[in-house]
Amino acid sequence: MVIVDDGSTDMTGLDEIESGNYPSIGAIDILTLASNQGNQRAVACGVAYVAEYAQSDYMVVMDGDHEDKPDYIPELLRACADSRDTRIVFAGRSKRSESRLFKIMYWGYRQVYRLATGLPISAGNFSVVPRHLTKRLAHIAELWSHFPASIQRARLPYDSIPTERGQRLLGQSKMNMFRLLIHAFSGLTVYADILAARVMLAAIVSTGFLGTATLWLIIEKLFTSIPIIGWSSLMIMAVAGMALQIISTAGMILLIILALRQQPPMIPAIDYHRFVLEVRRINGGTDLFDAPPIRIMPSGR
Asked: What are the alphabetically sorted keywords of the record (predicted)?
């Protein structure tokens, strides 16, 4: 088991974990990050650590607040095994436990995501990854931003099973409207180039329609006696001007994104060490891990 401590200053429960008896768990490694990096970067660090040291057949990714119900782990493992370990299997969220307003906002996020990328999204981090895909996943640069979106963008095979969201055991969830907005944009940044291209194409099509409408107004005014409202042509030209600005802006964003691809990206499997302060092993050792029991990791490699 790998526990990622995302730079927390609350040590509640740490003594219980360290003094507990876990006969069915060979080893527990606590990966402590130097500072709070956010949920997705913490997950990326954990995935990279597992890919580097773990020798297990599967990797289960889940939050530690019990909102991801451990009861579904056997079903996820069975679904992955049924695919002959060829697919990552997500716990699809068929029922959520948040407020009505949050559910409405999350529904809106899913629709925007589908519109922008052409793909549905209804899962979080809770998933099972077969061993041979773990190392590939750890080498996806977009993993820093959004776990499920990075898997979709990399075209790794995946599936999902329906699950219900559990109730948080301790404390209050820090996921609010502001964090949901950040989370949504993090997912969209994985498809930033596709999003910019779609916006630009939509603006081009809109400009074409507006150009046709403008030409029709000119013909009507010059060759017919049909009265034309004076401000209609000005309105069309103004909207066309806005569409041209959108085209130019989206085009520049797309060029910048494509140009940045020439720069070497940060890869979780290579760069996660920068964020790790230390790794401690409790509950003995096991041959499922190659890492030593206690290891202080440097800021870089």
From this structure: Cell membrane, Glycosyltransferase, Lipopolysaccharide biosynthesis, Membrane, Transferase, Transmembrane, Transmembrane helix
Strands 58-61 and 123-130: antiparallel
Per the CB < 8 A criterion, the answer to whether 148 and 140 are in contact is no
Q: Does pTM surpass 0.90?
A: no
- Residue type (1 letter), 83: S
Q: In degrees to the nearest 10, what's the CA dihedral of 260, 264, 117, 244?
A: 0
Distance set, CA 8 to CA 12, 31, 62, 165 (Å)? 10, 11, 18, 24
Checking if the pLDDT of 84 tops 60, the result is yes
CA distance 257 to 265: 12
Closest CA relative to residue 29, chosen from 270, 298, 297:
297
Contact criterion met (CB below 8 Å) for 64 and 35: no
The Cα 249–Cα 200 span in angstroms is 8
Could you report how far apart the first and last alpha carbons of the chain are, in Å? 24
- Which amino acid is residue 58, in one-letter code? Y
For 42-94, give the secondary structure using H, E and C.
HHHHHHHHHHHHECCCEEEECCCCCCCCHHHHHHHHHHHHHCCCCCEEEEEEE
**Neighbour order of strands in the sheet with 158-164:** 58-61, 123-130, 88-95, 158-164
The pLDDT confidence band at residue 174, using thresholds 50, 70 and 90, is: low
Which amino acid appears at position 67 of this protein?
E
53 and 291 in contact (C-beta within 8 Å)?
yes
Residue 129 has a CB neighbour count (10 Å cut-off) of 28
